[in-house]
């Protein structure tokens, strides 16, 4: 942790991570089904603005139809669009998948690169997708900033940023490396079960004592109640 933060804040972060470990375990797992690194890469490209469950439904048949990188590289774009239509943004995704797989074959011998700069040169691959690959395939300490990580990290007071890349760097500064991959996995689960975007279960949340958003809301409620009592 190189970021200049107080001892109390370090202790708060440590407790939050300990509670996440206890509640969700420290098992490294990924929700996108795959058998090879390139399948995970394609699944992650498809997951943009789409749920993992929907992607898994699509790739169940997709990876049976397109069994190799060459199958994707040589795919008819209109046919591939139809195959992935339900994941949304299917035109861009189909174009990117074909271009990405062609590049993997022509420049990387069919292997998915490990370096983040090489990964982000691939069509359809941003830092989020690159870090999914680095963290889950190559076990490189990486922080994946998806919608859950962005929203909940802001609630916890780990960052004030809106830009995913800036959030990534903020989290790299305050989280120990052994939690970089794990944090994303745990926060996804937390965001799906308790800190749900549309209806967060704040009163039931085991982190509410350490959540700056919840504490701030509680203080506002107390002040509002006091003002109402004075009237």
From TrEMBL:
The cross-references to SMART domains, in alphabetical order and at most eight, read: ENDO3c, FES
Known cofactor(s)? [4Fe-4S] cluster
User: What does the record say about how the cofactor binds?
Assistant: Binds 1 [4Fe-4S] cluster.
Query: Does this UniProt record's set of keywords contain Iron-sulfur?
Result: yes
Q: Which UniProt keywords apply?
A: 4Fe-4S, DNA damage, DNA repair, DNA-binding, Endonuclease, Glycosidase, Hydrolase, Iron, Iron-sulfur, Lyase, Metal-binding, Nuclease
Tell me which EC number(s) this protein carries. 4.2.99.18
Which catalytic reaction applies to this protein? 2'-deoxyribonucleotide-(2'-deoxyribose 5'-phosphate)-2'-deoxyribonucleotide-DNA = a 3'-end 2'-deoxyribonucleotide-(2,3-dehydro-2,3-deoxyribose 5'-phosphate)-DNA + a 5'-end 5'-phospho-2'-deoxyribonucleoside-DNA + H(+)
A Pfam family that the UniProt record links to this protein: HHH
Q: Is Glycosyltransferase there in the keyword field? A: no
Q: Which GO terms describe its molecular function?
A: 4 iron, 4 sulfur cluster binding; class I DNA-(apurinic or apyrimidinic site) endonuclease activity; DNA binding; DNA N-glycosylase activity; metal ion binding
GO terms for biological process, alphabetical: base-excision repair, AP site formation
Binding of [4Fe-4S] cluster, residues: 195, 202, 205, 211
Looking at the record, the residues that make up the HhH-GPD domain are 46-193
Family recorded in the similarity comment: Belongs to the Nth/MutY family.
The cross-references to PANTHER family, in alphabetical order and at most eight, read: A/G-SPECIFIC ADENINE GLYCOSYLASE/ENDONUCLEASE III, ENDONUCLEASE III
Record's function text: DNA repair enzyme that has both DNA N-glycosylase activity and AP-lyase activity. The DNA N-glycosylase activity releases various damaged pyrimidines from DNA by cleaving the N-glycosidic bond, leaving an AP (apurinic/apyrimidinic) site. The AP-lyase activity cleaves the phosphodiester bond 3' to the AP site by a beta-elimination, leaving a 3'-terminal unsaturated sugar and a product with a terminal 5'-phosphate.
User: What HAMAP family is this protein classified in?
Assistant: Nth
**Protein name per UniProt:** Endonuclease III
Q: Which gene encodes it?
A: nth
């Amino acid at each position: 942790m190189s970021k200049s933060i107080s001892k109390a804040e370090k202790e708060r972060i440590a407790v939050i991570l300990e509670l996440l470990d206890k509640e969700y375990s420290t098992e490294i797992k990924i929700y996108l089904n795959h058998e090879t690194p390139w399948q995970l890469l394609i699944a992650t490209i498809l997951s943009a603005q789409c749920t993992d469950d929907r992607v898994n439904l699509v790739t169940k048949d997709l990876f049976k139809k397109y069994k190799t990188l060459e199958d994707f590289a040589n795919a008819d774009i209109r046919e591939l669009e139809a195959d992935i239509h339900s994941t949304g943004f299917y035109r861009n995704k189909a174009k990117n998948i074909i271009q990405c797989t062609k590049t993997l074959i022509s420049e990387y011998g069919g292997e998915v690169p490990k370096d983040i700069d090489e990964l982000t040169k691939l069509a359809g691959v941003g830092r989020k997708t690159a870090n999914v690959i680095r963290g889950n395939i190559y076990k490189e300490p990486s922080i994946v900033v998806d919608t859950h990580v962005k929203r909940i990290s802001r609630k916890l007071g780990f960052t004030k940023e809106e830009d995913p890349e800036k959030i990534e760097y903020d989290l790299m500064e305050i989280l120990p490396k052994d939690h970089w991959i794990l944090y994303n996995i745990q926060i996804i689960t937390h965001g799906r079960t308790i800190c749900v975007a549309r209806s967060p279960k704040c009163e039931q949340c085991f982190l509410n004592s350490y959540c700056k958003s919840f504490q701030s809301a509680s203080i506002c409620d107390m002040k509002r109640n006091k003002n109402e009592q004075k009237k």
